[in-house]
Amino acid sequence: MSGLAERLEKLFSAVAFAEEGEFDTAREMIKEEVKMQNNNTTKTVQPRLQFSAPGAKG
Question: d(Cα 30, Cα 15) in Å, to the nearest integer?
């Protein structure tokens, strides 16, 4: 299953628990999802290339 499909399945499961009144369980499921998302997010900043026309001053 793709990453997006797995995430949606977990979120919909949390919604189902919340609909049945299991708010604490739903909150825990959401917290785990957010925690996993934050761990997998890596921000890499790459330098921006600068171009100039021949003969341009800059």
Answer: 9
Print the domain residue range for 19.
3-40
Whether residue 28 lies inside any domain: the answer is: yes
pLDDT tens digits for range 24-56: 999 999 998 888 777 766 667 778 887 778 887
Report the predicted TM-score, pTM, of the whole model to 2 decimal places. Answer: 0.58
| Rg of the chain, C-alpha, whole Å | 22
Amino acid at 44: T
Residue 15 is which amino acid?
A: V
Domain presence at residue 55: no
